[in-house]
Structures are given as structure tokens and as C-alpha cells.
Specification:
With 273 residues, the chain is of the alpha/beta class. The protein has one domain: Metal-dependent hydrolases (TIM Barrel), CATH 3.20.20. The chain contains 11 helices and 8 strands. The protein has an 8-stranded parallel beta sheet with strand order 1-2-3-4-5-6-7-8. Helix 7 runs parallel beside helix 8. The longest helix has 15 residues. 44% of the residues are buried.
Amino acid sequence: MSIFDLPKIDGHCHVLDPQRFAYPAEVPYHPQGQEVGSAGYFSHVMAAYGVQHALLVGPNSGYGIDNRCLLDAIAQGEGRFKGVAVLAADTSAPALRALQAQGIVGVAFNCALHGLAYYQDIDPLLSRLADLGLWAQFQVQGDQLAALLPRLERSGVRTLIDHCGRPALADGPDAPGVRALLRLADSGQGVVKLSGFAKFSQQGYPFADAQAHVMRLWQAFGPERCLWASDWPYLRAGYRLDYGTLLKLADHWFTPDQCQHLMWDTPKRLFNW
């Protein structure tokens, strides 16, 4: 069976619709042109590639902590979407429960963009997420996870790691950030998204230099804790990326049974679709 015939869940993508939901002026980066993609347009992309569901992630670019576009997409999505919101550190447990009722399954923290110091006060929020069974989703790069991991372990929060942990591949397979990612795998506390190769590969598509790291994560986390994701519509991408070619890359790197886990069985179980 072709990968295009398999039912799929996209574990990380964004919707941006500045015509309906204007970008807040205080957010410094406003995506434009091919970076913009509404929920309606993304629904057509999903139909074209056999994607049944998608985990929408609130983009720090454009919207910051304004989740209106995300929540509207979920509300209008007829069960296709769930979401990961971007929230202030002082968001209360009642506010989190209200978001949960609207299809939010976690909160995103973008250390790669903002730095670790920006998130120095999130430990109480992590505890509230853990109490509610919500995910804490982290985009880190280089060795940031090594500094962050003790806080995650203390909180006990279910942890999603974006884009393979965005290692500095030149630092080798034993870099502190990679060791922290493997420690998270051993703990059973974390799930990793096998995605975002353009964010750490130095070679471009088909990302040959990233393959060994991806396979190491597949072995460490196992099929029950690895997700495939497109990262559509490729915010801040340095060169053209396409949905179909990323699917073909997964088809090249993984067997059909492995793709079944990555793209359907595991995300369906983890996010209760």
C-alpha cells in the first residue's frame, strides 16, 4: 500500500488567517505570503493527502498568545482538529480546563525562539498541566533540553518534543542535548515528533545528514512514542518545502507498518481521536 493511501494524522501544523484574525501588533514577526494558511485551505491539503486529523499548534510567529484563530479552526473543524495553545505562564487551572473543553490538549513553549530565560517562571504552570493531564510541548535546539529536563522530570508533566529536539548535528551524537533527549526516552515521560528536519539539517532535502538522528530517536522512543508531522505551512523556512515530498521521505525512511504507527495508531491513541 502506498503511504498516500494510509489514513494519517498530522502531529504538528499551524493555521494562520490574518484576514479574519489580525496579527497582534506586539508580536514582532508577521507571517506573509506562502507562510499563511487558513484552516479552510489546510482542510483541502488534508483531503489531497489522506490526512484525517491534525494537531494544530498555536504559532508564536504572528499570533503569540492570541489563540482565537486556533480555537476557531477547532470549533469549525468537525472533529478533524485538536490544538496546542500558546499561553501566559500565569494561566489558571480553571482557564486551562475551559480550553480543554474546546479541544486544547496541551501548551507550547518555544525555547528555540525565546530562549530558556523567557520560561524561567513556568514551573507552576507545568504542574497545573500535569494535574489536568495536558501536554507540555517544547521546541528546543542544541543543548537547551539538557538544562530544561530536570524541571520537566520534577513536574511529571507529559512532554512532547518538537522537531527531533533540533540537535546541532555538528556536535555529534553524544552532545548534551541529544543525551537529554535519550534520557527523556528512557523515562517514558516524553513523546518526540519526527519532523522539522529543515530546522536542523545542514544539507536540505532529502536531509541525509538528519537520518541517523531520526532513526536513533525511533529506536529510543519506540513506535508508541514517535509521531510524524509536516510542520505545514513552514514558517520561516529558508527554502521551499512541500507536503508530498515530506510524505515520500517518510515512505523512504520507514516501512509501511512503521508509518502506520507514526501517522495513525500512536497519535490516535495519544490524543484520543
